[in-house]
Amino acid sequence: MTDLHLGLAGVGRIGAMHAANLATTAGVGHLTLTDADPARARSVAAALTARGARVSVAAHAAALLRSGVDGLVVATGTATHPELIRAGVEAGVPVLCEKPVAPDVALSLPVLEHVAERGGVVRIGHQRRHDAGYREAKRAFESGELGWLHAVRAVTCDAAPPPVAFLATSGGLFRDCSVHDFDVLRWITGREVVEVYARGSNNGDPEIGRVGDVDTALAVCTLDDGTLAVVTASRYNGAGHDVRLELQGSRGTVLVGMDGAMAVRSAEPGVPFPAGPPHATFAERFAAAYRAEVAAFVELVEGTGGEDLCRPQDAVAASRVADAAQESLRTGAPVAVRALEVSAV
Known about the structure:
The protein is α/β, with parallel strands linked by helices. The protein has helices at 13-23, 38-50, 61-66, 81-90, 105-118, 132-143, 164-167, 173-189, 206-210, 282-285, 287-302, 312-331, and strands spanning 4-9, 28-34, 55-57, 71-74, 95-98, 122-125, 149-157, 193-201, 216-223, 228-234, 242-249, 253-256, 335-336. It has twelve helices and 13 strands. The protein has a seven-stranded mixed sheet. A six-stranded parallel sheet has the order 3-2-1-4-5-6, sandwiched between helices. A hairpin with a 3-residue loop joins β11 and β12. The two termini are 24 Å apart.
């Protein structure tokens, strides 16, 4: 199949990016959009049509699925993910849904069971799995080049916080930002997180604390083989958008994110690295990864690939670690992470 008709629900910031990427992905011949704001969907469609893409607009998701799409991409608000995943499965088309599966793990489990019972093809958007640096780190570890891991350090820092209204419903810093780190931690090491101990602070806008969130947090994760991993996140990283992963092994160390736009500067005399301006947001940092992710989804729809896309049970397992981190942040005590028990999907 080389002329796919794909549907995209939600054309906010990430959805509009997906739309632009899908419109230029080999194998996609027609793209149908829908959004809770019809004017926004028409605007995005018009811009892509002006560039030569074949794009149409549907009034709602049900109409989109009735239009004969071969696959569905979901980039709507988190609360709508379960119903749209189910709708795509019932329509018999593969689904790529932005993380998470649902607002919390409890609401995610029935979705996983539904997908498994119906034999649905569903993948969750954890774009770091398609980033060249993370993929090389995984290869280096699996090849044995690093030896055994004695420490893992993951960082996700935004240059500035999103609106407080968003933070009031985001579920917390670990669920909103660090869930990506928890996913790649499991994906790269092949191990499960069995315990989390977290701490947080608020030194920025006091309104962030008033809606129940923190602007900076750290979680010490114990893996099931005893390896320790430290995951840090912040809303206030004035140096720029900073996303890194360091794998320290008995034989070698690799660092993801050490490029010319790294949001750091050296304190050593005469060291000019990095040379370029830092990434401003995640969209610039992971632009290539997002393109690779939708290309992998197209291959999945075609039946020619897509094996590296995140399966829903893995996304929920990462969310379970994020839940434990949020609970530890609330209680001040270490929290055990229960294993995820669900049918394969």
